[in-house]
Amino acid sequence: MSDLVERFTAIVGPQGLVSDAAAVQALATDWRKRYAGAPLAVLKPATVEEVSAILRLATETRTAIVPQGGNTGLCGGATPDTSGQQVIVNLSRMRRVSNVDAIGNTISVEAGCTLAEVQRAAEEVDRLFPLSLASEGSCEIGGNLSTNAGGVHVLRYGTMRDLVLGLQVVLPSGEIWDGLRGLRKDNTGYDLKQLFIGAEGTLGIITAAVLKLFPKPKTKAIALAAFDTPQEALALLAHVQSTCGDRLTAFELMSAPCLALVRKHFAQIPPPFERSYSQYALIELSDCAQGDLDEMLQDALGDALDGGLIRDAVLADSLRQASDLWALRENISEAQAAEGKNIKHDISLPVASIADFIRDTDAELKRAYPHVRMVVFGHLGDGNLHYNVSAPEGVANGDFLREQPIINRIVHDAVHRFGGSISAEHGLGQYKREEILRYKSAVEMELMRTLKRSLDPLGIMNPGKVL
Ligand code: FAD
Ligand code: ZN
């Protein structure tokens, strides 16, 4: 063990140093297995004081730090480089829920709590923590904050940024900023917490947060609608919004290849319809008041069917069927991973232009690469598509991945033309760090660099990510 690793280990104790080689390798590899780093050490501190001491030592020795939560990020943000010099600081041991306030509707948690643990703690007091992602069993609050995670309920409750009242952050110097306030109103200058949300670990380490809770919905209705085009999806979204109002909690678009992939790799999930259609939308309504949401959704879909907007629909009539319908949506990423590597784009667009974007960009891609499979799904109500391009049937993934720079150029230039963003909810990490330079203005990039320099003058926080 090097002297430096010994000094870090003295801070966290032997139980805070990951020494098993396979465990180190797993934590040094990202979820998509696109990046594999070689860290100097992987530390798992147990308290904020330990995190502070780690960063003091890192500042003294100019050691680069890679913060890490559940390691489910999709842009390589939590993966170190291969220099053997960077230290992963994994927060997974810091998982205390310190306060659940059902009157103020707040919950105070450490950064290493998984999202699912926070959801459960809220449920125990009959409240809802609404952030919901397919990775919720493993991703952690610190990671959710640092990526400003989105997921399937943004339509109603907003992204992680909208769900935070206060943060505790350890700065690169080791100083602790205690901003753990649960206030709904606080206009005392700059809103510092917002700097760290979405910063992907480049400005400091988030160690705890006060989050917002909501009344827990008492009733839900879930349906899957089938139709021909994304244009119809937009019309259906508008129709459901105007008839069901803010009871609409999720509106998820899925193209036919998404369902085919899920059915291939998760054959136990029953097919929703006897035949397949080209597009689907998973729709969820929820309400705190008692009332017949099934009837409301059924009426909305009945109108859509009569008006020729959709071709078919199925309304879940049991919890089992509801969870089967959700499983079709939630297993798309896993099914894609099982199928092999693909070229992912997590993009944001003005909602109304989504159909035109898909039409134009699909056509452009198919001109350049006939037979590519468009695995397109996403949070239509938020204007967020996971616009993923898979190799044509029979083409080796490795060969296809070589086309990534050209495909990214086609897709991201189109996003830019339509006034969108090349990262909606996954961040930049190392995956899109270079790409963003093409689309953000020089003024915006320089403002980001100014903030980075003032908070992390030595550049030890997650170098090589975002900027
Ligand atoms: P990590 O992957 O460990 O880290 C992510 C970034 O945050 C890194 O840059 C890391 O350095 C930084 N970081 C982590 N913890 C801290 C901390 N305490 N302080 C400072 N920086 C920190 N994302 C969505 O937004 N919506 C989805 O619907 C969604 N679905 C997904 C489905 C699947 C199957 C998978 C695998 C991922 C999905 N994701 C989704 C992506 C991912 O789960 C989120 O980005 C999540 O917020 C990452 O949390 P994590 O704890 O795993 O973070
Ligand atoms: Zn998503």
Description:
This protein is an alpha+beta fold and 467 residues long. Helix content is 35%, strand content 19%. It contains 16 helices and 17 strands. It has helices spanning 3-12, 21-27, 48-61, 115-124, 141-147, 154-157, 193-196, 230-244, 256-265, 293-306, 319-330, 332-339, 354-368, 397-401, 404-417, 442-455, and strands at 41-43, 65-68, 87-90, 97-101, 106-110, 127-128, 164-170, 176-179, 205-212, 214-215, 219-227, 248-255, 279-287, 312-315, 346-348, 373-379, 384-390. It has a seven-stranded antiparallel beta sheet with strand order 14-11-13-12-16-17-15, sandwiched between helices. Strands 4-5-9-7-8 form a five-stranded antiparallel beta sheet. The protein has a three-stranded parallel beta sheet with strand order 1-3-2, covered by helices on one side. β4 (97-101) and β5 form a beta hairpin. α8 (230-244) crosses α10, α8 (230-244) packs antiparallel against α13 (354-368) and α9 (256-265) crosses α12 (332-339). 47% of the residues are buried. Flavin-adenine dinucleotide (FAD) is lined by residues 31, 66-74, 77-78, 91, 111, 133-135, 139-140, 142-144, 146-147, 149-151, 200-201, 205-206, 333-334, 425-426, 429, 462, 465.
